[in-house]
Structure formats: structure tokens, C-alpha cells
């Protein structure tokens, strides 16, 4: 059995391109060995000196953060250092519903009115050349910390920390916004002239925030991100933050059993729900509060907002399906309505990509009468490059984002022009979709392999995410021994499957969450059907009863 498990580990590492020389580092990350020196950032020394001199002179300092589950934790990372050294810093996170993404004239004038002379951005700012110029006119130095793709002309900031900038020396390019903020704090802690924080590697206690951001923002979990997420999960399981402890309690997550899935499916969406449904400062306050009563109230509030968010997405989805004719859909979808809630358009776009398997741009109307929206790729195009290619002629008031997801704003009444130009550009830029629906398994297992020993091998590769996908297995020729639909509107399905070749194993549960859209054939199965199953091996801790099960990705009948 040990030889078979060693073979499985070898297969999984090889499939992920982990060479024999890299395996020790991959399987056993080291905080001291595997993180790069933060002063490799070209502007890091300049940035740290400006922060420390500003504190010494008693300047008014502000931190301007993005409103998502990367920017909010990233802002908390930097704010935690300021709190620790006893230096006041004003926090400004824009209102997702009434303000643009990134720096704005409104925010800058408000901050200048409060005598702010040093402004630090988190997870934004790299595309705000005009706004940074205005900040300088208003008497502010700006330090940009960001990770988004930079434009051709960079802002004239005092310092820029962004690993993606051309000519930047920092060796790892895929940090999250919070990851860049963490490197900034890591550098500040090392400065000999910085106020003492107490203890070696004090900043490691900030990694719970970095893990939330790194996993929520779906940056590749390779290189330095793997190290940050690996140790961040460890810190999160023992977090000192009352807000995170209260949120985990509200979600009924046992901290000791917490995984990256709990961040991706539970914690991240709750942090995002604050900005989508009200204001991101509620989530920021949850992360920063030192009062357990306040933490519990905020956790309950975020959970209520998340329920409301789900309801709004369902309303948009039903309306969008009515607006789209599946038989005549173009290669790229542009859909919107003036009544749709701006805060949940990105979620609706992701759901539409799942349904229609093509890039989607979804828009609503903001208070200023602009079409403001979100877009998601199906993997065949970089949506930022796509928007850049049609940006000539002032179509977009602004746009930005990542390869897979972005945001945009267009003058009202130009929806037909937007669709026509995006579709035309997409036809020139698109790459072929992967074959077989993109499903690639690591290897074939039998139900007799569904054991704790096998699971222990798999989790040695954790945490999983983009760039280190959770292992996916094919189980051939298994019999359906039972089918059960459950959840709201019977959205989920549980199959009980067994194998004729190993009857002693008994039945194995196979769960498909939201199966009607994610595993559509599962709802058509009945007892005694023979099927091939593609699934992850999963460990459920429902009601504190650890159980091994399969998480369905695909299922098909066999003769």
C-alpha cells in the first residue's frame, strides 16, 4: 500500500510540473527560506523611508484601500502595523455604489481637506495617473501598492510597489494586493529606525489576512503565494482577531479544520458582501475590532447581507436568462438592465459564464447615468486586453482588472456599440477553448482508494487553488446505489456509489453542490445506473463527524 501511495504522490507532483529539485520546497514550505527579501522591490527603500519620516514628523497619513476581499484584508494588514507602532492612519475605502474603483477626485479632495499629506494605496492606484497628479497638486505624496496590470504610462507617484511594472526587480510577479501590502509591512518591520513591534517575525500574525486575500482573489497559488497561503491558513486556524473568530463561529466552521475552501466559499464572500450590499468599512471594522461584542454583531450583519446578496443574484439571473436567446447567442455576451444592483454584477457574470460557456459583460446604471459593469472570461481571452483593444475613441470612461475578471464604465445608451465592438475584437483575440470541457483528471482511482491514507497524501499538496488545482480523479464503472436531492429548491444532489470489484468497501457518498448547473447529468440518474465519475476526494466535517466523500465534477452513464 505504501508503494501505491508513493506512486500517487509522484503522479500528483509530476502533473503539477513540480520537479524533483523543487519537491522539498513545495511539500515543506519555509517562511525564512522561501519568501523573497521585500527590499528587492525597486522603490521599497524609498517607500519605507517616506513612511517613517512621515510618522516622525507627525504628518496626517491615510490608507486608501479597494473594497473587495483582497483590498479590505490588505488595508487591514497595513493598518495593523500602524496600530502596533502607535501611529494614527486614516482609513478610506470607497463606496462601491457611489464611487469609482480606485482613487477619485472626490476622495482626494476630502482627504486633502483633512490635512492628509501622505497617501498609501492598497490593491489600487496603478491606473490612476490623473488622480495621482491631482493628489500632488493638493499637497499629498502618494505611495502606490498594487498588483494589477499597469498601463503604459505609470502614475507620477512618490513610490510604486507593484511586481508587474516593467523593469521591476521583484522576482515574484503574482502577489495579491494584500500580498504586496504584507511585503511593505515586512520591510517596515526590518527597518532599524522603525518603531519596535516586539518579537521576531511579528508580521507573521498578519498572514491570516493575507491568506484570505490570496485565496479570495484567485491569484496563482504557486511560488511565494503558496508560502503565504500555507502559513496564513495556519495563523487563521489560531487567529487572535475577534472579528475572524466571531465570523468562523457564525459560519459554524471549526477553526482547527479550516481549509482554503472555507475561505473561498464562506469567508471571502462574506467580506465581499459588505461592499456589495452596504459599505466595505463594515468588513474592515470586523477585521480590525478588538471588541468581541462588536465582532459578533458585525459577523451577524455580514451573514445577513450575504443572504440578501444571494437573493439579488437570483433575481438578476432569472431576468438575464429571459433577455438571452440561447439559440442565437453571440460568441460574447453583453447584457444589462438599469434596475440591476451594481454590487452583485460580477457574481452574475460568473454564473452566466458557467451557464453559457463564453465571456460575459454585465452592466447596470449608476447614479451618474453611466453603464457600470463587471466582466468575466471563460478562459479564452484576457478581458483587460480585450477592453484595451476597443478603448479607442473614448468608449470606456474607465476599465481595469485581471486576465479573468474586470470592471468597466461606459456612457449610457452605448450598449449596442459596446456589444458590437467587444464581439468584433473578441473574434480577433480569442484563443481556442480547451477540449473535453476543460476536464483533465490526474489519474484513475477505484472506490477502494477512498481512504484516509489516500486523503493524507492529497492534502500534502494543499493549499489548492489557481495554479495548484485540487487533484481530480476518474472512477470508472461504478454503480449508483442511491440518489438524494437536498437543499433549497433541491439544488444539490448526493449519489451513493459502489463498485462491483470491491463490494467490501460499501457505498461512498458523492456530493454535487448546485448540481443542476455544475453537474447537470447528476439529477437524471437513478438507482442501478452504471456511471463514470470525475470527482475530488473530499473530507466533510458536517456536524463534527469527519467523513470521506467524493465532490462531483462530472458524471456520465456507461453501457
Automatic annotation (TrEMBL):
Coiled coil as UniProt keyword: yes
Give start and end of each RecJ OB domain: 441-554
**UniProt entry keywords in alphabetical sequence:** Coiled coil, Exonuclease, Hydrolase, Nuclease
- Annotated TM spans: none
Q: Name one GO molecular function term.
A: 5'-3' exonuclease activity
Question: What's one Pfam family the UniProt record gives for this protein?
Answer: DHHA1
Note the superkingdom of the native organism. Answer: Bacteria
Tell me, which GO biological process terms does this entry list?
DNA recombination; DNA repair
Q: Which residues form a coiled coil?
A: 288-315
Pinpoint the DHHA1 domain residues.
332-424
Keyword Nuclease present in the record's keywords: the answer is: yes
* DDH domain location: 60-214
Member of which family?
Belongs to the RecJ family.
- Matching NCBIfam families, A to Z? recJ (TIGR00644)
Protein name, please?
Answer: Single-stranded-DNA-specific exonuclease RecJ
Classification of source organism? Bacteria, Candidatus Vogeliibacteriota
Amino acid at each position: 500500500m505504501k508503494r501505491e501511495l508513493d506512486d500517487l504522490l509522484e503522479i500528483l507532483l509530476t502533473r503539477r510540473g513540480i520537479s524533483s529539485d523543487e519537491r522539498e520546497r513545495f511539500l515543506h514550505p519555509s517562511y525564512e527560506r522561501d519568501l523573497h527579501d521585500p527590499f528587492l522591490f525597486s522603490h521599497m527603500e524609498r517607500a519605507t523611508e517616506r513612511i517613517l519620516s512621515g510618522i516622525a514628523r507627525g504628518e496626517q497619513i491615510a490608507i486608501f484601500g479597494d473594497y473587495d476581499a483582497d483590498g479590505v484584508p490588505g488595508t487591514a494588514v497595513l493598518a495593523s502595523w500602524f496600530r502596533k507602532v502607535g501611529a494614527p492612519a486614516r482609513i478610506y475605502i470607497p463606496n462601491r455604489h457611489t464611487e469609482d474603483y480606485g482613487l477619485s477626485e472626490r476622495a482626494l479632495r476630502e482627504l486633502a481637506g483633512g490635512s492628509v499629506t501622505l497617501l498609501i494605496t492598497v490593491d489600487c492606484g496603478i491606473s490612476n495617473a490623473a488622480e495621482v497628479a491631482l493628489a500632488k497638486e493638493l499637497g499629498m505624496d502618494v505611495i502606490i501598492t498594487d498588483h494589477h496590470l499597469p498601463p503604459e504610462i505609470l502614475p507620477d507617484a512618490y513610490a510604486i510597489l507593484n511586481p508587474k511594472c516593467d523593469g521591476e526587480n521583484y522576482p515574484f510577479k503574482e502577489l495579491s494586493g494584500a500580498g504586496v501590502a504584507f511585503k511593505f509591512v515586512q520591510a517596515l518591520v526590518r527597518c532599524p529606525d522603525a518603531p519596535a513591534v516586539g518579537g521576531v517575525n511579528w508580521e507573521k500574525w498578519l498572514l491570516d489576512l493575507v491568506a484570505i486575500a490570496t485565496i479570495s482573489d484567485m491569484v496563482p497559488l504557486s511560488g511565494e503565494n503558496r508560502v503565504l497561503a500555507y502559513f496564513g491558513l495556519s495563523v487563521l486556524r489560531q487567529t487572535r482577531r475577534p472579528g475572524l473568530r466571531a465570523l468562523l463561529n457564525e459560519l459554524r466552521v471549526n477553526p482547527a479544520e479550516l481549509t482554503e475552501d472555507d475561505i473561498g466559499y464562506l469567508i471571502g464572500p462574506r467580506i465581499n458582501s459588505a461592499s456589495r450590499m452596504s459599505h466595505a468599512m463594515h468588513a474592515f471594522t470586523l477585521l480590525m475590532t478588538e471588541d468581541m461584542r462588536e465582532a459578533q454583531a458585525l459577523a451577524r450583519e455580514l451573514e445577513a447581507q450575504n443572504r440578501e446578496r444571494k437573493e439579488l443574484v437570483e433575481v438578476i439571473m432569472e431576468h438575464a436568462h429571459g433577455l438571452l436567446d440561447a439559440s442565437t447567442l453571440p460568441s460574447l455576451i453583453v447584457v444589462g438592465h438599469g434596475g440591476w444592483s451594481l454590487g452583485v454584477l460580477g457574481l452574475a457574470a460568473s454564473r452566466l459564464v458557467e451557464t453559457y460557456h463564453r465571456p460575459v459583460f454585465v452592466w447596470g446604471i449608476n447614479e451618474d447615468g453611466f453603464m457600470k459593469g463587471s466582466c468575466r472570461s471563460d478562459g479564452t481571452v484576457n478581458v483587460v486586453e480585450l477592453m484595451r483593444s476597443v478603448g479607442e475613441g473614448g468608449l470606456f470612461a474607465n476599465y481595469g482588472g485581471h486576465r479573468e475578471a474586470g470592471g468597466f464604465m461606459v456612457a449610457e445608451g452605448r450598449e449596442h456599440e459596446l456589444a458590437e465592438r467587444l464581439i468584433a475584437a473578441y473574434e480577433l483575440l480569442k484563443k481556442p477553448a480547451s477540449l473535453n470541457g476543460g476536464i483533465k483528471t490526474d489519474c484513475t482511482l477505484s472506490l477502494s482508494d477512498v481512504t484516509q491514507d489516500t486523503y493524507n497524501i492529497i492534502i500534502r499538496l494543499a493549499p489548492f487553488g489557481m495554479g495548484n488545482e485540487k487533484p481530480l480523479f476518474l472512477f470508472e464503472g461504478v454503480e449508483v446505489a442511491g440518489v438524494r436531492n437536498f437543499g433549497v429548491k433541491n439544488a444539490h444532489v448526493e449519489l451513493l456509489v459502489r463498485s462491483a470489484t470491491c463490494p467490501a468497501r460499501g457505498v461512498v457518498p458523492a456530493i454535487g453542490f448546485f448540481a443542476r448547473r455544475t453537474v447537470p447529468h447528476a439529477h437524471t440518474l437513478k438507482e442501478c445506473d452504471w456511471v463514470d465519475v470525475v470527482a475530488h476526494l473530499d473530507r466533510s466535517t458536517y456536524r463534527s463527524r469527519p467523513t470521506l466523500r467524493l465532490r462531483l465534477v462530472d458524471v456520465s452513464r456507461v453501457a
